[in-house]
Amino acid sequence: MLVFRCGRNMIRRLYRREMNNLGKRFLTQLSEPALILTPTSSKKLKEKCSSGHFLRIAVDGGGCSGFQYCFEMDDQLNEDDITIEENGTVKVAVDSESLQYIKGSVLDYQDELIRSAFRITENPNASKGGGCSCGASFNLDPSLLK
User: Fold this and answer.
1) CB neighbour class for 42 (10 Å; exposed up to 12, middle 13-18, buried from 19)
2) How confident is the model at residue 62 (pLDDT cuts 50, 70, 90)?
3) Domain annotation covers residue 127
4) Mean pLDDT across the stretch 122-133?
5) What CATH number does residue 106 fall under?
6) Has residue 139 been placed in a domain?
7) By CB count within 10 A, which of 20, 43, 54, 60 is most buried?
8) Total domains in the fold of the chain
9) Could you give the residue ranges of the DSSP H alpha helices within 29-126?
10) pLDDT (tens digit, 9 = 90+) per residue, 85-104?
């Protein structure tokens, strides 16, 4: 019997590499787009994403419906990020954990009197009528939990 001894750093590197490979395999198995960008969001991303910056989208627990969308500008990709590129440049990054909650959604940019912001709309993973009225949070569709 072979026994391998390795430190925590080695295990972490192996884990990260496997998770990265898993994310790549997951992305190639998608039958639908990871995220659909509207023309308005693409235009705004072109304006905002300069010198290596991109929009990072994440899903965190919280908000008034259970999960909330988080948007921030970033310039560092993580190993488990799935990227959405346009003309060879990264415009949007989503970590593989968050992607399972927003896969197939539409990213839009809405310019309103009280605020202007990126928003996730038409999320097929969210329960219908179970989100908050401002659209910042959502509840998972119960049929997806089975």
Assistant:
1) middle
2) confident
3) yes
4) 73
5) 2.60.300.12
6) yes
7) 54
8) 1
9) 39-48, 96-102
10) 876 766 899 998 999 889 99
